[in-house]
Amino acid sequence: MNSIFMRSPEGEVKEVEATTAALTPLMVSGWTQVPPPAAGQKPAPPAKEEE
Amino acid sequence: MANISELLNGWGFGKQTAIGTANLVATIWRHTNLNTKPWAKVPVNEDDRAEIGKGHEFPTQLFKSHYNMPAYELSKYASSEFLAWAMSFSMGNVVVSGSGPYVYTIVPALGATNPTGLELPYFSFVQQIRPGGSAVLDEMLVGCAVKGWKLSIKNSPGRASAMCAVECVTTGQYTSPSGITLPAISTPHEFNAGMISALTFNGINYLTGGSAKQFVSMEASWENNFRPGFFPGSGAQDGYQIQGRFEWGDRAFAVQFVVRVQAGSTEYANLINLTTGTATFTMTRDANNSFTMLIQKMGFNVAELGNTDGIVTLQITGVQLYDPTNGMVTMTVTTPLQGICQ
What we know:
The structure holds two protein chains of two kinds. In chain A, strand 1 (3-7) and strand 2 (13-17) form a beta hairpin. Chain A has one helix and three strands. Chain A has one helix at 20-28; strands at 3-7, 13-17, 32-34. Chain A is of the alpha+beta class. By secondary structure, chain B is mainly beta. Chain B starts with 7 loop residues before the first strand and ends in a 7-residue tail after the last strand. The interface between A and B is medium-sized, with 16 and 20 residues.
């Protein structure tokens, strides 16, 4: 899975599947791309689209 | 003397770190341009004709005023590299994934969450004719921004069937000589209209099924409507005031397209029923080069009956609505080049 890390305006960092469907709502609501967290830091699991 | 064909153009594919800080050469690419004019610098002088106390109404003195830099068009055949650049610098909110090819996901930035407020990324523009000791022209314009673009898809053969023209503005700050040795000319991965692989507007698929072969042409455009960037402290070059920012105003995203009319055409019905839906336009050259424009919610504003080369057609003017979850439009570009707008 191709994924990237995004940070919310509130500072939450999570790994997100790098698809248009997954990224668009996050980008629209102010999430920005950040580098992967340093080793040892565990990010939230990848976001899944709702059924 | 020099022929205009000697003009070399290069500009930042990476963004400047600040409006007044030029691109480093490593983030500048060199491309051809179908616009055959150089980017003119226009310093403006003023005089004292309006001031009384001289004993007459005539001007007696000149004063330096400001750099009134005209907008400049980069006109190119649409390619994955150029579209990624144009969309990124015009909309500002960019996410990159992949490790080659690279996938750029781009949406319009919002002032509330954009780290630079109402300002978009800036780039430097280099123009040279016989650079070196006896250059006819060698300058780098610093603090350029993308004012808007137009993507044109036509019912014709070749690269001209998919064109992208980008209108740029600049502050007036420049360095001459540029100090830049431009890289070898880039070979972009260009598209043509035959590479369209998805073409569905508001529920009507113009690529397959009953509406296939209906599509004639499309023009999509983006306009940032920048506000003037002169303000106290905006800066000076050669004693002339320059602009110190380009802030977007009321941005406009327009889409018009022309389709052939056939029995059962649903464009009128969509217009009258206020039907809205997504619009997807994709060009795919290969696995490493593609472009998708996903309009989240499109309705039809006008459907005007006409004729195109003797065929009865409808010219549709779309209205792009803002969706609270997905925004207005998402551009997704796959290209081999890393670092665009980074």
